[in-house]
Structure formats: C-alpha cells, structure tokens
Amino acid sequence: MTEKLDAVERTALLTAALRAAETAREDRLYDDPYAARLAGEGGPDLLRSVREATFPKDADRTVPSTPDYNAIRTRFFDDFLQEAAEDPAMNQIVLAPAGLDSRAYRLDWPSRIRYFEVDRPAVLAYKEGVLRDIRPRVDHRSIALDLTSPDWESELTAAGYDPDRPSTWLLEGLLYYLPDDDTRRVLDRVAAIMKPGSRIAADVVNAASLTLPDMRDLLDVFADWGCPWVSGTDEPEALFGAHGFTVEATQPGEPAADYGRWPDPVPDRSVTAVRRVFFVHGRRS
Strand ranges (DSSP E) for 1-76? Predict the structure, then answer.
C-alpha cells in the first residue's frame, strides 16, 4: 500500500517510525500505540537512513538529534492541542497536514470537539486502511486535499468546519517543504478562514538550516527522497505576524520545550549562522 505514497507523503512514514521508536523507550515522552502499525515496513528503513546521517559512524554528530527532536515536537504539540481543547469555547481542531498522526485515536477529547484531518488522498487512504479496526476518540472528519490547491476552503467547510467559530490549527511538518511564496499563501488562506482569537501552531526552521555545511548530510537525505527543505525564516514571529497572527517562537531545549531530552545548547537568538528549529504558537489576531 505504501508504494502509492509519493516522496513528501513518505515522510509521514518516517514520523510514524520515530514515534514508534519513542513509544518503545522507558523514558518516553508520550505513548503512541498505533505508530508501529502506521510506520509499516517502509518507515523503519527511512528512519535508518536518518539515523545514519544524524549519528554518523566514526564522526561527531553535527546535526540535530532527529529522535529527540521528534519526541519533543510531538509532546509539545500534544500539550498545545490538549490545552486548546480545554477551552469551553473551542470545538474545532484542524491538523493540516495530518500525515500518519494518531492523536485522534490515542488522546482523549471533549465530546464537543470536531477533529478535522486534512491531507492528500493517498495518505488518508493509507491511514484509514491501517487503522480500519480502531475507532477515533473524537468526532473525526478526514478531508482529502492539498493546502496549495485552489479551493480547499470549500471542501473543509463542506465537511463541517465553521469559519465563524473558534478553531485550533496545527501545521506540523509542512512549511519547510513549501517555497516561500506558497508558505505565505497558505498562512494567508488559513488566517482568512479562522475566527479572531483562534489558535495556531507550526514548526519552522531558520534560513541557516538550509545552507549550513553541518546540515548537509541530513538535508541530502530528504533531497534524495525528493522532498528537500526549501524555506526557512529567522523571524518566525514577523512571518506569522504579517499574516494576521500574534505568536511566540519556542526552540527545542528552551524550558517550555525540553522535557529533559534536548541534547544540544540553545544559542541566543542574536547568534547567527547556527541551525534552529522553532515551535510557533499563538492566536489569530
């Protein structure tokens, strides 16, 4: 079934494999009982390639620890979504792209929540096939579309999304695969369909992460798969602010995103020419 997934879609298998590996740890930051099933046979092979680039033999590690990063990202966004769902006024959550995420199946949600998973048809079909015997713990709605397509808003509203009610959006593992112009268009369109006060979160990398020699081994893995990282920003607050959001940017390793697992120093934002990842989180202004 995974042979129907294209290069970008296959990164969802990598994420599932990372989550399966995290779940197997005694000190795990979360428990994803469906990750190994979703990763299938292909996910571990992709993870092996990333591990070889991240922890090279006979050389010091120079790129971020992908397993630790993914564990922190998943836990950070788990907490973000669960906190948003506790707001009595909140009844819509949108994961775009949803990938092979299983939060709808592994976390508890208030009964008022409508939980929308947006992704390409092949990804959603694969996930639905793998999890066909598992019931989501929420009013779960899958919408097969691409956020760069011309009319995805009408498809989302047809599935029950209400732009006039508060919503929470998570753009996880998306923006660094999009050219700058597409990133801006996506943020504009998402902002236009969100009620003011609604919540948003996303992960982005800085510009130096796309060019630093120390990052080359990892970047080459994704480029060889056909899904290179193509955009980054040194000012995520300004990027999102230009599209109607008021956000904070938290780096893995800072107190709010560490969980005792980030292995590297976190340079001050004034330091240039270093790799960075940002967890952007805030609200529609």
Answer: none
pTM for the full model? 0.96
Tell me the angle at which helices 7-23 and 216-225 cross, rounded to the nearest 10 degrees. 120
203: which 2 tokens?
A: 């992960």
What confidence score (pLDDT) does residue 64 get?
Answer: 87
- Cα dihedral sign for 270, 273, 274, 280? positive
User: Which parts of the chain have pLDDT scores under 70?
Assistant: 1-8
Q: Is the CA virtual torsion 84, 277, 140, 16 positive or negative?
A: negative
Helix, strand, or coil here: 104? helix
**Tally of CB atoms within 10 A around 27:** 9
The confidence score (pLDDT) of residue 147 equals 87
**Alpha-carbon separation of residue 226 from 165, 220, 223, 229, 260 (angstroms):** 38, 10, 5, 10, 33
Query: Which H or E element spans position 85?
Result: helix 66-85
CA distance 49 to 42: 11
As given in the structure block, the two tokens for residue 195 are: 């009620």
* pLDDT value of residue 58: 84
DSSP for 148-191, please give it: TSTTHHHHHHHTT--TTS--EEEE-S-GGGS-HHHHHHHHHHHH
Rg of the chain, C-alpha, whole Å: 18
Segment 13-43, tens digit of pLDDT = 999 999 999 999 999 999 999 999 999 999 9
User: Are 131 and 106 contacting, i.e. CB atoms less than 8 angstroms apart?
Assistant: no
Per DSSP bridges, beta strands 199-205 and 277-284 are antiparallel
- Cβ atoms within 10 A of the Cβ of 171, count? 23
Rounded Cα gap, residues 270 and 186, in angstroms: 28
Give the C-alpha separation, 256 to 119, whole Å: 29
Task: Report how far apart, in Å, the C-alpha atoms of 220 and of each of 23, 65, 214, 225 are.
Answer: 27, 16, 11, 8
